[in-house]
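Long-time lurker. I teach an intro course on protein structure, and each term I like to show students one example going from raw sequence to a predicted 3D structure in token notation. This year I'd like something fresh instead of my usual example. Would anyone be willing to generate the tokens for the chain below so I can use it in lecture? Attribution to the forum is fine with me.
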Amino acid sequence: MPYEFKTERRVEFADTDMAGIMHYSNFFRYMETAEHGFYRSLGYSVVMNQFDPPVAWPRVHAECDYFKPLKFEDLVEIQLLIKEKRSKTLTFCFRFWKLGQSPAIEVARGLLTVVCVTHQPDGSMNAAKIPQALAEQLEVAPQELLE
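-- Reply from a regular --
Happy to contribute to a lecture. Here you go:
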């Protein structure tokens, strides 16, 4: 059962600010990219229309701590780990590793909590249990990976 997903990205010029470092807000975009890749690795899309009713994943908490900067053309690995799994929510831990040197350097760490919801005909959302088929595929990462 998966609890980890890794993907790599190169910092694009458009990701940087006037100081030449990756703008803090782009770490959240990279987290979302890794989250979507994780769902695809399980055979789903972030748009989960295959469930009845379809489910969506709005964010209820997001945070990121920055340790070292990333710059244009740096290669970064985004490691997604499932930190917590509840009946209706998932919390992901994201570790950002600057590649190209040995060992890789952790440059940031983020958290993202998402809640499983269904959309109602009037446009409102209701929290819902994570569909069983998906929940059975998910496992919390070992504590030593989260430290």
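Some talking points for your students: The mean pLDDT is 95. The chain has one domain: 4-142.
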